[in-house]
Amino acid sequence: MTCEEALARLDDFVDGELGEAEFQDIELHLAACAACAEEAVELRALVERAGRLPRALAPERDLWPGIAEQIRVSQPAAARPMWPAWTWRALAAAAAIMLAVVWWRVDHRVPPSPSPDSAAQFASLEIDRDYDRAAAELLVAVNARRSRLTPEAQARVDESLRVIAQALSAIRSELAKDPGSPALNHLLISVHQRRIEVLRTLVGLTA
Amino acid sequence: MSSKTMLRVGALLLLPMAWSINANAQTSVNEKRPAAPDGVIGIDVPNGTVDVKGWANQELQVTGKVAQADTLKISGDPRNLQVSLAAQAGAEVRADLEIHVPAGCTVRIKGIKTSIRASGVAGTVAAESVEGDIVVSDTATVELQTVSGKIDLGGSVRSARVHAVDGGISVKNGAGEISAQSVGGRIVVSGDKFSHVRLATVNGQAEFEGNLSADAALSAESVSGTIKITLANATGADVAVRTMSGRIENGLAGANASELSQGSQRLLAFSTGGGGAKVSVQTLSGTIVLSRR
Fold first, then answer.
1. A201 contacts B223? CB cut-off 8 A
2. Residue A57 maps to a domain
3. Which domain holds residue B51?
4. Residues 6 or more apart from B71 whose CB is under 8 A from it?
5. Secondary structure of residue B111 in the 3-state scheme
6. How far is the C-alpha of B180 from the C-alpha of B164, rounded, in Å?
7. Digit-coded pLDDT (tens) for B36-78
8. CB-based contact (8 Å) between B203 and chain A?
9. A7 is in which domain, residue-wise?
């Protein structure tokens, strides 16, 4: 893999959105290429900073009517618009967003920055919780069908789920030390997926 | 007690046993249906054994035994046939079947306490069983899942996706693409013509032994299980190994080896045999053993 190819997929790598093979490709490249590894570190920091921004940004009041009125007044009534109407609306909307950002930055005191890793930790905790919720729902379905398994099979399933729970716990402990680690996040998701796969298989086979 | 009364009592005692014998008795079946050479055949046998064999005939043939209380049911059209058992309420459902299918078809087998075998199918075999073992050979594409059974792949399988929960997975003389995943079961994969290999386990052991072409990729991942990678002498590879607290035993002579510490992680990267195939191994606490055959 070339540096150009690696850099083109770095966003998805940092976001944990690559498939298994591509993830491994990038990992291998980063292990051997200090420049790209540095890019990855910087991108992670950027993503973490972006993660601390508020999810929704609403202006204090609706700026659009005023902007629209100014556009209407400044435009001669008979003149043919040089740009189509949607362009103006788009520009005005962009301006409104910029104003809202400026308003927010000026009028709102930014709370003290959390540690750089806390945003990444928050993101991975969210994913962790989503998977836990999905697993809990599937487990309800599995438990409803437990009687269709022999006691031996039930014991082996329980043991496997216990092993997975222990593994998740061990990965979470490591993630607490290094929250933004793509490798640890990848491993966490991989084990979560294994648990979902196991539960889905059980639901399907005992239906 | 008179001898007549004794006979009556004896008959009453023996009657339930006779019923039981009757219920467990099996009857032979031998059914045939026309089948498309590239059609789909579904097989649903909750308990017993299923042995699927590909053949040159454009015909489905089901032979073997079913519990007397059950009825073998074959439904659908030649492009989409379904073999299943219609059981009487409360009766034991069991069948031991040998099923011949057109070699080019797709076969989907579902079982609970069912041991499954399949061979000689040039199409796809997808099989699921909770407790039974699954043995597949000489089949182009396989997708197998089992909870506590073992999975055994042999012969010329070219593409395999294999999931076991607790049972072991064994792939001998494998080729092409293989993805083998388990929770606690041991995974052993060997072969010489792989293009893509993925091994993933939680606390089971995962082993690979074989040759990888220059454009092949192998990834192995475990939380606490040991991973052993044994490359054939002819294999050149770019290797990256990452572990948090596991031990690395590197028996591959690595050119340009670099070892980095990233946070709590240890990353070892190097080329061996001139480089080529991409080999990536990751564990949390499991040991990683790299060696040459």
1. no
2. no
3. 22-129
4. B85, B86, B87
5. strand
6. 8
7. 999 999 999 988 999 999 999 999 999 999 987 568 899 999 9
8. yes
9. 3-51
